[in-house]
UniProtKB/TrEMBL annotation:
Protein name: Uncharacterized protein DUF4337
One Pfam match: DUF4337
Keyword line: Membrane, Transmembrane, Transmembrane helix
Organism for this UniProt entry: Camelimonas lactis
Comp. bias (Basic and acidic residues): 10-26
Record region (Disordered): 1-31
Sequence intervals crossing the membrane: 35-56, 139-159, 165-186
Length: 187
């Protein structure tokens, strides 16, 4: 126990000497350096931007999947309507003994065909929406990645005993990520 206490006292003494040496060197301690404060604020802003962009990215991904699912539903409905129309055509041909090609003379058949075409059009529109949302998702993924890299680069600015160039690089990367994210959102 006494040996542990002596070892702890020795560690505290060496840390105190390191702080005294840093103070005597004329350089401000790390936590009092204004650059460290600026970099820390920049990192906080980048972190919030990354969270916001990540949330928007997730929403676009979910919306793309939802639109693709909706397209499948519409296509299934169209297929059902065309199948019902074909079944009706066969039934009419068998029941009335007339040619199967004459089926569109009936108002019900025309309405069923119009419904099938409308469902197909809705399916195509949903597929276009899914593609648009998917493209947004891809752009936003790159934007989030740039912001995350910017946070890592800003950290290097502090670790490498406050240097400005990594901080400036982080600002540029974060700005590029933000602009890319804005472009992805507006696309």
């Amino acid at each position: 126990m006494a040996r542990l206490a002596a070892q702890t006292a020795e560690e505290l003494k060496s840390e105190h000497e390191a702080l005294e040496t840093a103070r005597d060197s004329g350089r401000p301690p790390l936590l009092e350096d204004p650059l460290v404060t600026r970099v820390s604020v920049t990192m906080a802003i980048l972190a919030v931007a990354g969270v916001i962009l990540g949330s928007i990215e997730s929403m676009q991904s979910a919306a793309a999947a939802n639109a693709a699912s909706q397209a499948l539903i519409y296509q299934n409905r169209a297929t059902d309507a065309w199948s019902a129309l074909d079944a009706r055509m066969v039934r009419q041909a068998l029941d009335r003994g007339r040619d199967a090609q004459a089926r569109f003379s009936d108002k019900d058949d025309a309405a069923l065909a119009a419904h099938a075409r409308a469902q197909e059009n809705l399916s195509l529109a949903s597929l276009r929406e899914a593609e648009r949302r998917g493209a947004r998702h891809e752009i936003l993924t790159w934007a989030v990645m740039l912001v995350q890299i910017a946070i890592a680069v800003a950290t290097i600015s502090i670790i490498a005993r406050p240097r400005r160039w990594p901080w400036r690089a982080a600002i540029v990367l974060g700005g590029a990520g933000g602009l890319l994210g804005l472009g992805g959102w507006l696309a």
